[in-house]
Design a protein that fits this description.
Elements lengths: L12 E4 L9 E7 L6 E9 L5 E7 L4 E3 L1 E6 L2 E9 L2 E9 L5 E8 L2 E8 L15 H8 L30 H10 L14 H8 L7 E3 L16 E5 L3 E5 L5 E7 L3 E7 L8 E4 L4 H4 L13 E3 L13 E3 L66 H34 L4 H18 L17 H7 L31 H4 L3 H16 L12 H14 L14
Antiparallel strand pairs: 1-16, 2-3, 2-10, 3-4, 4-5, 6-7, 7-8, 8-9, 9-10, 11-12, 12-13, 13-14, 14-15, 15-16, 17-18
Length: 556
């Protein structure tokens, strides 16, 4: 079996915190070339403190292999690896005279094929966009209408207004990698969770935010099941996923660029080996993410082994999704009262998916007994965590998309010398859509009380910021709706603060129209006078860039 023949995926970029010292130690990037194919690989080799060498070979999709029998004799280097039980491969090569490359021969199942490595990683996203005629781009963009979920983002990600994957990343994980390289932070590999707890601590992500997903809806689907669920953890800008027997997945929101995706193999070493992967964009760049590199949360109808039954469909999750359609394929702990949902259950009868939810699947206190919770950081997949998480994921995508739309429009205005009226209307529509979601205008109402069990609710609410009366946009309601004060805490996010000035101006103006009562559309009647007044007062005390008109006496 030629394992490499089933791993053909798109190119990736690898970032290593291993020091690039002279000689063989450190990261190497390149290809192996079996007949008729070519595969991107990366190899990192480190000197053991006790003597000898250790190393890892990583494939394009994050699959990793421990290097064995590493021998370095002058410029000659060799090692072996086990590609599957009782099936080995080996490499024999030589360091180039200038120390910048390794070339040689890879042997597997008696077949031999060449490989070549260098110190230079593969480019992330290639292709220039400057050749696109601005007027043609405007024509394409103005041919679409409707909400952002129906109106695609037309320019390529590499367009000069966006430069996704081209500009240096400024997300929390990119910053952490730099801190590790500079010796400011050290991640610890500890037992079966490996780097997970240390990584969460370094990114300031609470363990209480743990969620457990048993549906096979991840790049690591092969090893996910109801007995071996994938766990997720998050804060305001980063989501971390982990599967026992697999690697750590990370999605981090750059203040301007949208989500960047990383993998961290669970291989112990002096320093961790991060992979920045564009492979994740095959799912996380779609109409479901508003055509930006973003976040996805779905509810599916899963079979007993966790496989989504696609003919039954699925539901995108955000605060507008009715509770009865939420959390299929997810474990849920805590109480939803008499309100039904799809969590904790699998489909037994394809023609009767509604039969999957029973009273026994609701109001679950702990996940003990469903799988080996002792091997996880927490025995919970808290219902409050799930509700906050799904609200935030779509909010993050809206912020990114609004920023991209405004940046593209400004670029085209500078290039053509004028602003197209249709683009102007689209920008207004984008700002209005973001504000409606920010203020929970179409939130699905609750008909009973939600109760969490992990301690997340209290921890989340305590983080503030708080106004002079002790109120915060992080305080939860959980009886009528998610938040006590209907304005998203994501208004404090770095990505919101990094929105273009023109974008924030349009958003704040629309917020004031709604909160002051100037907007008379009946759909805003769900915001009571007390709601509006409280939100304005909290923002006055806690949001520094708030326009002066928010400080005026509120109109009724």
């Amino acid at each position: 079996m030629k394992v490499f023949l089933i791993l053909l995926l798109s190119a990736f970029t690898i970032i290593s915190s291993a020091a690039q010292v002279p000689g063989v130690a450190g990261p190497w990037y390149g290809t192996i070339n079996p007949p008729g194919a070519e595969f991107e690989i990366a190899v990192t080799i480190q000197k053991r403190d006790a003597g000898g060498w250790t190393g890892v070979l990583l494939m394009e999709n994050g699959l990793s292999f421990q290097l064995n029998d590493i021998t370095i004799d002058g410029s000659a280097i060799s090692f072996s690896l086990e590609v599957r039980p009782a099936a080995k491969a080996s490499l024999k090569g030589a360091l180039s005279p200038d120390g910048t490359g390794i070339s040689g021969e890879f042997t597997q199942n008696g077949a031999k094929f060449p490989f070549k490595l260098s110190r230079t990683p593969a480019g992330a996203l290639q292709g220039a966009s400057g050749a696109i005629d601005p007027n043609e781009l405007i024509e394409m963009m103005t041919s679409f209408s409707g909400p952002l979920a129906d109106r695609p983002f037309v320019p390529p990600l590499t367009h000069s207004a966006i430069e996704y994957g081209i500009r240096p990343s400024r997300d929390a994980v990119a910053n952490l990698i730099r801190d590790i390289e500079e010796g400011k932070v050290q991640l610890k590999f500890n037992g079966e969770p490996g780097y997970l707890r240390s990584l969460l601590d370094a990114l300031n992500i609470p363990v209480e935010s743990q969620m457990a997903v048993f549906s096979k809806t991840s790049v690591q689907a092969a090893i996910i099941s109801p007995e071996n669920p994938r766990t997720l953890y998050f804060n305001d800008s980063v989501v971390v996923g982990s599967v026992r027997g697999g690697f750590i997945e990370i999605a981090a929101q750059d203040p301007e660029q949208g989500a960047n995706f990383y993998m961290l193999p669970q291989q112990p070493g002096d320093k961790p080996f991060f992979i920045k992967s564009d492979n994740c964009l095959s799912c996380h760049l779609s109409r479901n993410s508003l055509d930006v590199p973003g976040m996805l949360a779905r509810s599916v109808y899963a079979s007993r082994d966790g496989v989504p039954i696609n003919p039954l469909g699925s539901h995108l999750l955000d605060h507008r999704t009715s509770l009865q359609e939420r959390w299929g394929g997810w474990y849920v702990t805590g109480s939803s009262g008499s309100m039904r949902h799809l969590g904790n259950a699998t489909v037994n009868h394809l023609d009767k998916p509604e039969s999957m939810v029973t009273d026994e699947t609701l109001n679950v206190k702990t996940l003990k007994g469903k799988f080996d919770t002792d091997a996880y950081l927490s025995p919970y997949s808290d219902i409050v965590v799930l509700m906050v998480f799904e609200h935030q994921m779509h909010m993050m995508n809206l912020i990114t998309r609004a920023g991209w739309d405004f940046r593209t429009a400004s670029f085209l205005e500078r290039t053509t010398g004028k602003r197209h009226s249709t683009l102007e209307r689209q920008l207004g529509d984008a700002a209005n859509e973001l504000v409606d979601y920010l203020l929970f205008i179409e939130e699905a109402p609750l008909s009973g009380k939600i109760q969490g069990v992990s301690g997340f609710a209290a921890k989340f609410a305590s983080e503030g910021p708080h106004d002079s009366k002790g109120r915060s946009l992080r305080q939860l309601d959980l009886e009528r709706r998610l938040m006590r004060y209907p304005c998203s805490y994501m208004i404090y996010a770095k990505a919101f603060d990094a929105l273009p000035a023109e974008s924030k101006k349009a958003i704040y103006e629309r917020m004031w129209e709604v909160l002051s009562g100037a907007e008379k559309n009946p759909k805003y009647d769900r915001l009571t006078s007390a709601d509006r007044q409280a939100v304005v007062e909290i923002l006055r005390d806690t949001k520094q860039d708030l326009p002066d008109y928010f400080k005026a006496t509120q109109r009724r």
